[in-house]
Write a structure and sequence with these properties.
About 75% of the residues lie in helices and about 0% in strands. It is mainly α. Bound molecules: fe (ii) ion (2 copies).
């Protein structure tokens, strides 16, 4: 699997989203490497569980950000998050079935799908928040 490109392609300019994406994509790479390195099923399962939990937390954070800003694309974007979680659940089932090569293929397609999501929907959300941000309340 190619190393993540943290140049212009995956960095979208929102500090917290960028940090969360690094962790999310980092976990996908750690998962891929743990299987290729022949780590035990328990070790691989632990990374897969972390990826699942972290992805859910990240999508929840983005969904809340969209609601906070009454973001017009919220329903479409949230639906895509649901589909991505569904593909992670399918990946978990593939791993549980012991199909190693199919698991690696599923990880690769999840990585590609996430990259497209970050570069498209997440980048648009980041721009919207930057342009329509809620003003910071100054305390005197
Ligand atoms: Fe998103
Ligand atoms: Fe995201």
């Amino acid at each position: 699997m190619e190393k993540p490109d943290w140049g212009q392609s995956l960095t979208i300019g929102n500090t917290s989203m960028d940090l969360e994406h690094r962790l999310q994509i980092g976990l996908i790479h750690a998962l891929d490497e743990s299987i290729r390195a022949g780590q035990t099923r328990e070790e691989v399962a632990k990374i897969l569980a972390q990826l699942y939990e972290y992805t859910n937390a990240h999508f929840l954070a983005e969904n809340l950000l969209m609601r906070l800003h009454a973001y017009p694309e919220y329903p479409l974007h949230a639906d895509e998050h649901d589909r991505l979680v569904g593909s992670l659940e399918a990946l978990r089932r593939t791993f549980d079935s012991g199909e190693t090569s199919m698991t690696l293929e599923s990880i690769e397609s999840l990585r590609s799908w996430l990259a497209v999501h970050i570069q498209g929907m997440d980048r648009r959300l980041s721009s919207y928040v930057a342009e329509n941000g809620i003003p910071v309340v100054r305390r005197t």
